[in-house]
From TrEMBL:
<protein>
    <submittedName>
        <fullName>Periplasmic binding protein</fullName>
    </submittedName>
</protein>
<comment type="similarity">
    <text>Belongs to the bacterial solute-binding protein 8 family.</text>
</comment>
<dbReference type="InterPro" id="IPR050902">
    <property type="entry name" value="ABC_Transporter_SBP"/>
</dbReference>
<dbReference type="InterPro" id="IPR002491">
    <property type="entry name" value="ABC_transptr_periplasmic_BD"/>
</dbReference>
<dbReference type="Pfam" id="PF01497">
    <property type="entry name" value="Peripla_BP_2"/>
</dbReference>
<feature type="domain" description="Fe/B12 periplasmic-binding">
    <location>
        <begin position="58"/>
        <end position="320"/>
    </location>
</feature>
């Protein structure tokens, strides 16, 4: 009996050891899977499987906007594609300063933002970011995903969705802390400006027009947000029915804006030297300014939106914001978020409307 009992005990021991080995192997396999991939839900509600670590990325759609969001978490060095055709001029000089690596990289999309899948596959990015622009980003994401390129959709319709977009990018690129710091800076900037603006009477808030005087259009719905937040009254607020609206000379004269913000430095002279506008309040008082341009045009959607709010507040109410040092604000912002050491001359160039180009060339 003793011999039989020993055999049984030996068999039980072997079974236990075998079970432990199988369980251990299973755990090791699970651990390996967890370590190499992960799944996130993007802003379009799509599940996207990604590598655990992202070493390279591409952007498809409104390139300068998307790149600005990547810059804001300090990861511009991971972008492997170049700018789209419309952004290949001196106007976009700071894109190359913030991410020198994009300068010699190829375009990966058509003029209507459709991806060049063959070119993208050559670049082999670990992830692609896209955003609603001309059409659905989900359609673009499907094309790229089917080609084996994990693609994350971003959405930015409402002003503060920039925080959600950057939080999503932070999650994808393992930069959650930097993304949270950006959200805090965004909220703190609004609070700083509101603390002053809230005490300014309605009759002291100027009528403001943000426009492209060459095309006679008022671009981007987000204008209505930053003009109001900065203590102005947008003349297009009541008539805006779409992202970009057209207006006539007669309409501009009727609005009689007290401050006009144009799309580029050359448009300041274009507007002020046009005899049709000589009686407009902003022209008579020399309150016509170009919108600053850094990674992107500040008056449009860009991660630099908090800086636009500060600039607009000081432009509308210079006395109330006389202690605001915009050059220093820029230097600190770009250093902390973009990992770029900016000098005063560069800050002044951005604040003065960005790099100047020949009016005959594309902006």
């Amino acid at each position: 009996m003793k011999k039989k009992e020993l055999v049984i005990l030996a068999m039980l021991a072997l079974l236990i050891i075998s079970g432990m080995l199988i369980t251990g192997c299973g755990k090791e396999k699970a651990a390996d899977t967890t370590a190499t991939t992960r799944t996130i839900v993007d802003m379009a509600g799509r599940e996207v499987t990604l590598p655990a670590e992202i070493h390279s990325l591409a952007t498809i759609g409104p390139g300068p906007v998307l790149n600005s969001l990547i810059f804001a978490v300090g990861e511009g060095g991971k972008i492997v594609n170049g700018l789209p055709d419309f952004a290949r001029s001196e106007r976009w000089k700071y894109q190359h300063k913030f991410a020198p690596n994009i300068s010699e990289q190829p375009m990966v999309q058509t003029s209507d933002f459709q991806p060049n899948v063959e070119e993208m596959l050559k670049l082999k990015p670990d992830v692609v970011f896209t955003m609603e622009a001309r059409g659905s980003c989900e359609q673009i994401a499907e094309v790229l995903t089917n080609a084996g390129l994990p693609t994350v959709c971003l959405v930015w319709t409402e002003p503060d969705e920039v925080k959600q977009a950057i939080n999503m990018i932070g999650e994808v690129l393992n930069q959650e802390t930097r993304a949270q710091e950006y959200s805090k800076y965004f909220d703190d900037t609004i609070a700083r400006v509101s603390k002053v603006v809230d005490s300014i009477p309605e009759d002291k808030r100027p009528r403001v027009l943000h426009c492209n005087i060459q095309s006679m259009t008022a671009p981007h719905t987000i204008t209505e947000w930053w003009v109001s937040q900065a203590g102005g009254k947008s003349v297009t607020k009541e008539v805006r029915v779409s992202e970009n609206i057209e207006f006539s000379v007669e309409q501009l004269l009727k609005w009689d804006p007290q401050v006009i913000i144009v799309s580029s430095p050359d448009q300041v002279n274009l507007l002020c030297n046009d005899s049709r506008f000589k009686e407009v309040s902003a022209v008579k008082s020399k309150q016509v300014f170009p919108t600053p341009v850094g990674a992107h045009i500040w008056g449009n959607r860009t991660s630099e939106q908090p800086l636009m709010l500060l600039w607009a507040a000081k432009t509308f109410h210079p006395e109330a914001f006389k202690n605001l040092n915009l050059e220093e604000e820029l230097i600190q912002f770009y250093k902390h978020f973009f990992n770029y050491s900016m000098n005063v001359e560069e800050a002044q160039e951005i604040l003065g409307g960005g790099p100047k180009v020949d009016p005959g060339k594309k902006k």
